[in-house]
Amino acid sequence: MPKKLQRLGQAVREFQQYMDEMLARERSSASTEQSGTPNLMSALVRASDEASQSKDLGQDSKRGLTDEEIFGNIFAYNLAGHETTANTVAFALVLLAAQPRYQDWVREEIREAQAATKGDYESMFPRLQRCLAVMRQYETLRLYGSIVFIPRATSDEPQTLHSPGGKDITIPPSTAVNINVQALHTDPKTWGPDTLNWRPDSWFIPSPTSKERPSQQHQTFISPPQGSFIPWADGPRVCPGQKFAQVEFVAVLATLLGGYRVMPVLREGQGEEEGRKALMGMVDDSAITAITLQMREPRKVALRWEGVV
Questions:
Q1: Between the N and C ends of the chain, which has fewer C-beta atoms within 10 Å?
Q2: Quick check: helix, strand or coil at residue 146?
């Protein structure tokens, strides 16, 4: 058997072993009413136990989750969380290297936050709004979101949708529906005529005192219309890992850009502008190559880092 498949099999076995041990600990803590550190596993076990004991649910709902269903959820969260966030970081770094002025814009915020806080999550994360703007409501996920469509289906009953124009659309029961996320995120009616341009600073209302660079105290996010921005889906089935992904992305970006600058590795005879155009071409040449949207040739243009004072 190829070594890659051997390593994959070993990883699957070890992952299952870790989950078995975690589930045993959580069930033990639940049975003795000991309160450990809250985590995803404990939340699933608690929700399953509450459903099993509820008097308000039917028999089908009262059975709770089996161990296999809990394992399935944990595996999906791990796969979906790491795959999507890693892709978003990769796209963001390439885009920042292609448009270096945004690196300075983000670094200004990072250093202000570092000077004003002790570096702890509670005080620092809320200040890193430009880092978030690079990621989500914000440009990288708007134009290069990992999920390009969201599958949904109606129940046994027809469902009527009310469009903004006043037209009602009735979807028959048991009908599969794919939501075109990319179309929503690039609709000129919502995002303006330059909808395909990557501009993180477009998510802020300019300060009355500084139209060019609003300070930390005066920058305000522009909230998109409901339903027009759904990289994590929306409504009661919104992605449960949304907050974790945001914190993970911001932590990576703040760590890297706080002290370093990223730029393309130029080929012989290639100028800086040509190198940046090559990066944008690499990003635009993206497709669903596995589970999520990815660059087809991510090694086509290399990146390099240098320290900044």
A1: C
A2: coil
- The first and second tokens of residue 150, run together, are 């969201």
Q: How far apart are CA 241 and CA 274, in angstroms?
A: 38
Distance CA 84, CA 89 (A): 9
Mean pLDDT calculated for residue range 47-67: 65
pLDDT of 196 above 70: yes
Helices marked H in 99-180 — which ranges? 101-116, 121-124, 129-135, 139-144
Residue with token string 């994959």: 8
Sort 117 into a burial class: Cβ within 10 Å, 0-12 / 13-18 / 19+.
middle
pLDDT tens across 144-171, in order?
Answer: 888 888 888 998 999 998 877 778 999 9
SS3 assignment, position 306: strand
Q: Which sign, positive or negative, has the C-alpha torsion 82, 85, 90, 93?
A: negative
| pLDDT tens digits along 73-128 | 787 777 777 778 888 899 999 999 999 999 999 999 999 999 998 888 889 998 99
Helix (H, G, I), strand (E, B), or coil: what is residue 46?
helix
Q: Distance between CA atoms of 131 and 250, rounded to whole angstroms?
A: 6
Both structure tokens of 65: 């989750």
From 246, 247, 277, select the one nearest 264 (Cα to Cα): 277
- Kindly list the distances between the CA atom of residue 70 and the CA atoms of 8, 35, 92, 206, in Å, as whole numbers in the listed order: 21, 20, 33, 46
Q: Specify the pLDDT at position 214.
A: 44
Angle in degrees, CA 112, 115, 119, rounded to 5: 105
Question: Distance between CA atoms of 251 and 269, rounded to whole angstroms?
Answer: 36
Q: Look at residues 204, 198, 200, 197 and name the one whose alpha carbon lies nearest to residue 222.
A: 204
Backbone angles phi, psi at 260, to 5 degrees: -135, 160
CA–CA distance, 210 with 43 (Å, rounded to integer): 46
pLDDT digits (tens, 9 = 90+) for 207-226: 555 444 444 445 677 778 88
